[in-house]
Amino acid sequence: MSANRDKQTSIAEHGRLAAKKKREATVSRIERAKKTIAKEIARNFGVYPFVGGRLSVEEVLRRAGLDRALLAKPRHATLRAELRTWVAQTLEGTITGHTNIRRHVTQRADEANTEIDKIRQRWAEAELEFAEQSGELSELRLKCERLEADIRELHRALADRERPRPQ
Asked: Where are the domains of the chain?
């Protein structure tokens, strides 16, 4: 009788270990999906880039590659509650709805266009400054050449003066 009981305990223990591993794998997949989603939202400036910006528990499960009925099971009640809380907190920091997303994207595009205009203006100013400095540089080179010629002439004149004259 005790051998039979040991077998039942062993089978039950294997079942518990298998269930624990499966739960850990499920939680791991959900955590990876949550991290990926958070990165995508950050990368897109507060907009979830899929399904029209609508983030939900079902979307997290889809991204984790899990069936949406998974959390309906009673053994996943705490996981379901944690995931709902995470989705609610994440949605607080995101922009949702077509109108809001369109407004946000338009605002970002306008800001980018303003920045592009500023860069173009700086570029035009830099080109003008470059042209002015190129002209000044040419003038300074000519002046330098003239001064070097003057110095050579002065050196010759000085050398001629110092050379002893035949008597």
From this structure: 1-96, 97-167
String of b and e for 37-49 (b: at least 16 CB within 10 Å)? beeebeebeebbe
Angle of helix 2-43 versus helix 57-64 axis, rounded to 10: 110
> In terms of residues, how long is the chain?
167
Q: What is the CA radius of gyration of the chain?
A: 39
The residue with tokens 């994440």 is: 90
Q: What is the pLDDT of residues 44-68, one digit of tens each?
A: 888 888 888 889 999 999 999 999 8
C-alpha 59/C-alpha 68 separation (Å) is 8
What digits encode the pLDDT tens for the residues 95-115?
887 788 888 889 999 999 999
pTM over 0.85: no
